[in-house]
Amino acid sequence: MEVRDTDHSAHNAAMTLGFGLAEGIGTMARRVAGELAMIEANGSCRSASSLTARDVSQVLRDVTFGRRFMAKVGSQTWDEVYASHFVVNVEGWRITLYNDCDELDYCEECVSSDDENWCVDPGDRFGTDPVALLSTWEHQTLERMLKAL
Fold first, then answer.
1. Cα dihedral 91→92→94→99 (10° resolution)
2. Which 3 state secondary structure label does DSSP give 83?
3. CB within 8 A of 34, min separation 6: which ones?
4. What does 84-142 look like in DSSP terms, one character per residue?
5. Distance from C-alpha of 60 to C-alpha of 134, rounded to nearest angstrom
6. CA-to-CA distance for 125 and 134, rounded, in angstroms?
7. pTM for the whole structure
8. Helices 53-64 and 136-148: crossing angle, nearest 10°?
9. Per-residue pLDDT tens for 86-132?
């Protein structure tokens, strides 16, 4: 990737994050590369989703009401991830959520116990993400539960 002196948007983003230009661009590039590698390694985000955002939202809602059990996948806690993907297992459903500076932001993908999948699509309308379909109370409760894992 070539970096030009005229790349003001990257510079502004890096400075906002408290990085020098070279360090900020390098950090952002490593983050994006890591996320792409994770998607490729998991073979995730197949083109035809067989689950809907409502299906995934219902699973998350069931967790908040104690009807389903949720466990983290991996060794890192919610606080240790801080600004990246956090994967949980809900009774065989593998759900990837995005921790945005210690706040539950959105659902990246979900693979059900039957190997059906749902993936976020950048072209989707606002509010069609499974996390966005939760009520305020459900969202806050799920966030608290994630922090406790």
1. 20
2. strand
3. 84
4. EEEEEEETTEEEEEEEESSSEEEEEEEE-TTS-EEE--TTSPTT-STTTTS-HHHHHHH
5. 8
6. 16
7. 0.67
8. 70
9. 999 999 999 999 999 999 999 999 999 999 999 987 766 666 799 99
The tens digit of pLDDT for each residue in 45-91 reads 654 568 999 999 999 999 999 999 999 999 999 999 888 999 999 99
What is the torsional sign of CA 71, 75, 80, 81?
negative
Tokens of 28: 């952002």
- The encoded tokens of residue 135 equal 């009520």
Residue the block writes with tokens 């990837």: 96
Q: Sign of the CA dihedral 145, 146, 147, 149?
A: positive
Query: What SS3 string covers 95-107?
Result: EEEEEECCCEEEE
Structure tokens at 6: 């005229």
More confident residue, 39 or 145: 145
Task: Report the pLDDT value the prediction gives residue 82, as an integer from 0 to 100.
Answer: 86
Q: Which of 115, 90, 114, 118 is nearest to 106 (CA)?
A: 118
